Amino acid sequence: MEPITIALGLAKLTGLDKKIGQWIGGDNGEAVASKVVNIAQTLTNSATPEEALARVQQSEELQNQLKMMLVNRENELDKLAFQNTQSARQMQISALNQDDKFSKRFIYYYAWFWSIVTALYIGLITFTEIPEASTRFADTILGFILGTVVASILNFFFGNSRDNSRRNEIQDIQQSLKEQ
Question: Which region, left, alpha or beta, applies to residue 71 given φ > 0 means left and ψ of -120 to 50 means alpha?
């Protein structure tokens, strides 16, 4: 079985399927999946990933232990999954230290360009007649613009809410483990 398949199976057993799915869905998904599987193998003292999955499936106690191990190593897994975002920010810091004004301001020009294009596109498909045959294309492009372009710009300049959601998730996990 592939590490991603096993990691998703482990994620479902621990209830962290949404979080682990986000990590695996990134550019470094294979590395994250391998790390999750390695953690499970270490916990269960298993020789193969399939054996680790089988042992975790059979024991609720192992499921809870794995869940806590993954939550405790979340920063490490998060860093592994999203290290490409950090390199973009480092590149911007380097650009700001240059004397070339265009290089310093490029990311801002880029963000302005996509913001204007997005606003124009939304306005056009909202207030103009779209041929019936083109509505699927318009919807797909709108979804891409809103889900990727706008989200990426906002995430780059303002960060994301991962830290707050992590804090809430840890509290929920600790509460659920106390109740058991």
Answer: alpha
- Residue 129 falls within a domain, yes or no? yes
Domain hosting residue 153, numbered range: 86-158
- Judge whether 172 lies within some domain: no
Say if 142 falls within a structural domain. yes
The whole-angstrom separation of Cα 157 and Cα 153 is 6
69 contacts 13 by C-beta, under 8 angstroms = no
For residues 62 and 111, membership in a common domain is answered with no
Question: What torsion do the CA atoms of 21, 23, 27, 30 make, to the nearest 10 degrees?
Answer: -80
Residue 81 CB neighbours (<10 A): 22
Whether this model's pTM surpasses 0.70:
no
Number of compact structural domains in the chain:
2
Do 75 and 132 reside in the same domain of the chain? Answer: no
pLDDT, one tens digit per residue, over 25-55 is 766 778 888 888 899 999 999 899 899 999 9
> Is 14 within 8 Å of 67 (Cβ atoms)?
yes
Q: What letter represents residue 67's amino acid?
A: K
SS (H, E, C) 66-128: HHHHHHHCHHHHHHHHCHHHHHHHHHHHHHHCCCCHHHHHHHHHHHHHHHHHHHHHHHHHHHC
- Tell whether 166 is covered by a domain: no
